[in-house]
């Protein structure tokens, strides 16, 4: 079953019975495959059925004495097949139904044949379907050995068996961790060690043999090398250029590039992969690199994700699949093959097509995007929807207040609305978040009644909170404003209506709140965000610019932060063991090395012993002749930060949010787009007596598992967002030819510099080594940091000019290419690079 899932999902395959014994085994082997087979069973068009043979009187069997569990299950499957044969004979039908037993267990197949059962391996059955020859491409390799390449040359060391690995991990000989391949260097990876081995939390792996057939996100066992073999993280950008599989000497030459002399302080714990604990293979999107041999069936597949190795597949459809985005699954990786073996799953469409590339983007980042089932959709409110008398009983009616929302242009999922009014000598501020569905019923649109969850503060004019309360409410927003429209009202000398007065009050308090946060050590960092202006008909980007921030952006942010802190305090006070909170760990000191060195190169000192020290030194770091320097430092500081994460209060004791300098924090204000906020809403509702709880909500272990999934989904959504920006940036530059722009150097590598173009908020890499081009003389200095190209020295934060163009030479990995124009590298070979 596991080997055949891609076949079973094909529309051609119908009328299948999946036994309970098989389902249980699949569930134990692979949760994703189990989900896929359950989805197939639930598809009425496929006519797949599950049979509970383990609970049927005539098919249940006991395990025999001396019989292994595996042999007992194989026998149970054969008994069920025979019962079905007899059962279907009793059904009167014009057409005789034949039961065929499919298995990739050759021993079980032989026993079935001996018992008179019609049995085939998956491969035999699929090859017999002559009307559907394309299905053959989707056959999985049954074993590593079965598909070893003919050369037979051993490339990789043998993997140590799992039982010995587990003993070695227990005794401390090996370390277990998650394998993370590098995006920039295919000969380097890191392993994040599980458990408490803090001194070896991250282990570097370098070189093909040490990587030893591990694939990104596999759980691996690592053996530490002797200290005199430790290496430093590579500063070289190396990409697998698809050379001949047998050309291992080429790989060895590239590995020698990594072994340049480095400062001893830069050396890190280094190891080698000795075995695989658990494979985390998934279907991979990418493109076929068609073999140059005429009528060849064996080809290389190049994944879209550069962290995944190329995969060897066999297909008869190479001419059709060339130029298509396809999905391929890995089946195994023999010791004598440079690349793993796999099989074709399906085609997604033509490369470069917007719909196809969006599908690739979502699949590659594991973003669920299937349509909701009818069962889920049945829970939607019936339209037309309106607030009932029952709703009114349990909610506070706030529709008389001059509430408004402030959001980016074109925003349809309006999560929050705000209000401020004079309340005796103090001010009353309300933040309201939604409680129904996305861009309509859940969106706090203007001039319609909406259900909300309100956070209400009574403050004095110093923005000191005198009283906080929370309530389920009903509101009617009086205006849906953009940041620019709200700013215009605040700045207007003629507008003095209730909404404008409310906005001015909010803005005044927000400035006080922000100053107080910063005084307490909150960081003000920077990250260039881009905004695309789309053609209304083609939906192609026609303009690209960095987002302009106004006072009103900060105004909304301050009250959202305050609401999140207030709610965090409330749910933790009520539920100290199972509050869903969010923390931001302090970065380890080594994370700041690049920032400190870059500042030092401009004669500036950045202190990093606390968030407050960092914030104060960033405030002081600047140059009258170089106003953009402070922004660059803040961008660099952002890259030094750790990822903020969700956690369960009963499973952790460090609640601090480093970036916000807050002792406690959560997410409450965006329930339309974040599931974490939904859980926080439920907890808060229970805390104020507005709702009842349920078991999962008060189980800290289940909540901790949920937080783990939330963190994973949040991370993948961020990656998907970046990939989407990259794709639309490529579309923008597609017909622009060569664009010349000012840029600043953010990072220096051994053979390249990474630059930021402020006009577009765009980052890119300028390479000084290219395949097939003459070699330049490069001198890399990590301490300064700087890179000398021939006689031209480039430092971090130097202002340069670059040419920007779309490089479409590799349709699989189209990219924005940047070439240094100023300062001019005074050497003929760089002129050749420019051509």
From TrEMBL:
<protein>
    <recommendedName>
        <fullName>Exosome complex exonuclease RRP44</fullName>
    </recommendedName>
</protein>
<dbReference type="Pfam" id="PF00773">
    <property type="entry name" value="RNB"/>
</dbReference>
<dbReference type="GO" id="GO:0000175">
    <property type="term" value="F:3'-5'-RNA exonuclease activity"/>
</dbReference>
<keyword id="KW-0460">Magnesium</keyword>
<dbReference type="GO" id="GO:0003723">
    <property type="term" value="F:RNA binding"/>
</dbReference>
<dbReference type="InterPro" id="IPR012340">
    <property type="entry name" value="NA-bd_OB-fold"/>
</dbReference>
<keyword id="KW-0464">Manganese</keyword>
<keyword id="KW-0269">Exonuclease</keyword>
<dbReference type="Pfam" id="PF17216">
    <property type="entry name" value="Rrp44_CSD1"/>
</dbReference>
<comment type="subunit">
    <text>Component of the RNA exosome complex; within the complex interacts with EXOSC4, EXOSC7 and EXOSC9 of the exosome core complex (Exo-9). The catalytically inactive RNA exosome core complex (Exo-9) associates with the catalytic subunit EXOSC10/RRP6. Exo-9 may associate with DIS3 to form the nucleolar exosome complex, or DIS3L to form the cytoplasmic exosome complex. Exo-9 is formed by a hexameric base ring consisting of the heterodimers EXOSC4-EXOSC9, EXOSC5-EXOSC8 and EXOSC6-EXOSC7, and a cap ring consisting of EXOSC1, EXOSC2 and EXOSC3; DIS3 associates with the base ring of Exo-9.</text>
</comment>
<dbReference type="Pfam" id="PF17215">
    <property type="entry name" value="Rrp44_S1"/>
</dbReference>
<keyword id="KW-0597">Phosphoprotein</keyword>
<dbReference type="InterPro" id="IPR041505">
    <property type="entry name" value="Dis3_CSD2"/>
</dbReference>
<feature type="domain" description="PIN">
    <location>
        <begin position="1"/>
        <end position="110"/>
    </location>
</feature>
<dbReference type="InterPro" id="IPR050180">
    <property type="entry name" value="RNR_Ribonuclease"/>
</dbReference>
<keyword id="KW-0694">RNA-binding</keyword>
<dbReference type="Pfam" id="PF13638">
    <property type="entry name" value="PIN_4"/>
</dbReference>
<dbReference type="Pfam" id="PF17849">
    <property type="entry name" value="OB_Dis3"/>
</dbReference>
<keyword id="KW-0540">Nuclease</keyword>
<keyword id="KW-0539">Nucleus</keyword>
<dbReference type="InterPro" id="IPR022966">
    <property type="entry name" value="RNase_II/R_CS"/>
</dbReference>
<keyword id="KW-0271">Exosome</keyword>
<comment type="similarity">
    <text>Belongs to the RNR ribonuclease family.</text>
</comment>
<keyword id="KW-0698">rRNA processing</keyword>
<dbReference type="InterPro" id="IPR033770">
    <property type="entry name" value="RRP44_S1"/>
</dbReference>
<dbReference type="GO" id="GO:0005654">
    <property type="term" value="C:nucleoplasm"/>
</dbReference>
<dbReference type="GO" id="GO:0071031">
    <property type="term" value="P:nuclear mRNA surveillance of mRNA 3'-end processing"/>
</dbReference>
<dbReference type="InterPro" id="IPR029060">
    <property type="entry name" value="PIN-like_dom_sf"/>
</dbReference>
<feature type="domain" description="RNB">
    <location>
        <begin position="395"/>
        <end position="690"/>
    </location>
</feature>
<dbReference type="InterPro" id="IPR033771">
    <property type="entry name" value="Rrp44_CSD1"/>
</dbReference>
<dbReference type="InterPro" id="IPR002716">
    <property type="entry name" value="PIN_dom"/>
</dbReference>
<dbReference type="GO" id="GO:0006364">
    <property type="term" value="P:rRNA processing"/>
</dbReference>
<keyword id="KW-0378">Hydrolase</keyword>
<dbReference type="GO" id="GO:0016075">
    <property type="term" value="P:rRNA catabolic process"/>
</dbReference>
<dbReference type="GO" id="GO:0000177">
    <property type="term" value="C:cytoplasmic exosome (RNase complex)"/>
</dbReference>
<dbReference type="GO" id="GO:0000176">
    <property type="term" value="C:nuclear exosome (RNase complex)"/>
</dbReference>
<dbReference type="GO" id="GO:0004519">
    <property type="term" value="F:endonuclease activity"/>
</dbReference>
<dbReference type="InterPro" id="IPR001900">
    <property type="entry name" value="RNase_II/R"/>
</dbReference>
<keyword id="KW-0007">Acetylation</keyword>
């Amino acid at each position: 079953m596991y080997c055949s899932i891609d076949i079973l999902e094909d529309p051609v395959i119908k009328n299948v019975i999946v036994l309970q014994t098989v389902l249980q085994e699949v569930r134990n082997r692979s949760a994703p495959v189990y989900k896929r087979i359950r989805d197939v069973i639930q598809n009425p068009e496929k006519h797949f059925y599950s049979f509970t043979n383990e609970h049927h009187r005539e098919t249940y069997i006991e395990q025999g004495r001396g019989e292994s569990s595996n042999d007992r299950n194989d026998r149970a499957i054969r008994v069920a097949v025979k019962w079905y044969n007899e059962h279907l004979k009793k059904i009167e039908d014009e057409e005789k139904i034949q039961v065929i037993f499919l298995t990739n267990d050759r021993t079980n197949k032989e026993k079935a044949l001996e018992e008179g059962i019609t049995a085939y391996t998956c491969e035999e059955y699929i090859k017999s379907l002559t009307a559907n020859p394309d299905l053959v491409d989707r056959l999985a390799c049954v074993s590593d050995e079965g598909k070893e390449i003919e050369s037979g040359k051993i490339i990789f060391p043998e993997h140590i068996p799992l039982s010995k690995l587990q003993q070695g991990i227990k005794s401390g000989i090996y370390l277990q961790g998650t394998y993370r391949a590098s995006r920039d260097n295919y000969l380097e990876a890191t392993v994040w060690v599980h458990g408490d081995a803090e001194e070896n939390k991250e282990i570097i792996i370098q070189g093909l043999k040490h990587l030893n057939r591990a694939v990104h996100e596999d759980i691996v066992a690592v053996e530490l090398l002797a200290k005199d073999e430790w290496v430093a993280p590579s500063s070289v950008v190396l990409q697998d250029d698809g050379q001949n599989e047998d050309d291992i000497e080429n790989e060895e030459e590239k590995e020698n590039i990594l072994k340049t002399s480095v400062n001893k302080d830069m050396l890190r714990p280094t190891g080698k992969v000795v075995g695989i604990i658990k494979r985390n293979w998934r279907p991979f999107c990418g493109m076929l690199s068609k073999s140059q041999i005429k009528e060849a069936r064996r080809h290389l597949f190049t994944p879209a994700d550069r962290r995944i190795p190329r995969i060897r597949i066999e297909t008869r459809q190479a001419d059709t699949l060339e130029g298509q985005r396809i999905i391929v699954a890995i089946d195994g990786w023999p010791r004598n093959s440079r690349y793993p073996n796999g099989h074709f799953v399906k085609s997604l469409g033509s490369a470069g097509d917007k719909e196809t590339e969006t599908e690739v983007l979502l699949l590659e980042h594991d973003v669920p995007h299937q349509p909701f089932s009818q069962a889920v959709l049945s829970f939607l409110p019936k339209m037309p929807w309106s607030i009932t008398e029952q709703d009114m009983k349990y909610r506070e009616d706030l529709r008389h207040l001059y509430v408004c929302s402030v959001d980016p242009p074109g925003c349809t999922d309006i999560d929050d609305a705000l209000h401020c009014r004079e309340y005796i000598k103090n001010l009353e501020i309300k933040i309201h978040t939604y409680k129904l569905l996305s861009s309509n019923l859940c969106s706090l649109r203007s001039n319609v009644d909406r259900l909300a969850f309100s956070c209400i503060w009574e403050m004095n004019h110093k923005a000191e909170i005198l009283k906080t309360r929370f309530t389920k409410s009903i509101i009617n927003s009086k205006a849906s404003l953009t940041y620019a429209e709200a700013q215009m009202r605040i700045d207007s000398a003629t507008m003095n209506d209730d909404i404008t007065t409310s906005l001015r009050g909010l803005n005044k308090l927000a400035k006080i709140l922000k100053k107080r946060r910063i005084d307490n050590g909150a960081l003000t960092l920077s990250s260039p965000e881009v905004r695309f202006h789309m053609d209304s008909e083609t939906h192609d980007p026609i303009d690209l610019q960095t987002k302009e921030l106004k006072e009103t952006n900060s105004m909304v942010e301050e009250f959202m932060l305050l609401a999140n802190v207030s709610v965090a305090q409330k749910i933790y006070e009520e539920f100290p063991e199972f509050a869903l909170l969010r923390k931001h760990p302090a970065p380890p000191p080594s994370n700041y090395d690049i920032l400190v060195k870059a500042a030092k190169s401009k004669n500036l000192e950045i202190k990093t012993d606390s968030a407050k020290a960092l914030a104060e030194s960033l405030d002081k770091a600047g140059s009258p002749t170089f106003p953009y320097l402070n922004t660059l430092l803040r961008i660099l500081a952002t890259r030094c930060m750790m990822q903020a994460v969700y956690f369960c209060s009963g499973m952790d004791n460090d609640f601090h949010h480093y970036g916000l300098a807050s002792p406690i924090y959560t997410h409450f204000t965006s329930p339309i787009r974040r599931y974490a906020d939904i859980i926080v809403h439920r907890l808060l509702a229970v805390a104020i007596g507005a709702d009842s709880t349920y078991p999962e909500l008060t189980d800290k272990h289940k909540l901790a598992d949920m937080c783990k999934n939330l963190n994973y989904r949040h991370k993948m959504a961020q990656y998907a967002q970046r990939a989407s920006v990259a794709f639309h940036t490529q579309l923008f530059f597609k017909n622009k030819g060569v664009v010349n722009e000012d840029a600043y150097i953010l990072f220096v590598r051994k053979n390249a510099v990474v630059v930021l173009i402020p006009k577009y908020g765009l980052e890119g890499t300028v390479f000084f080594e290219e395949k097939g081009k003459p070699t330049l003389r490069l001198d890399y200095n990590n301490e300064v940091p700087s890179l000398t190209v021939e006689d031209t020295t480039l430092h971090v934060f130097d202002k340069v000019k670059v040419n920007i163009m779309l490089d479409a030479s590799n349709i699989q990995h189209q990219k924005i290419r940047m070439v240094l124009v100023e300062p001019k590298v005074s050497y003929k070979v760089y002129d050749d690079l420019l051509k």
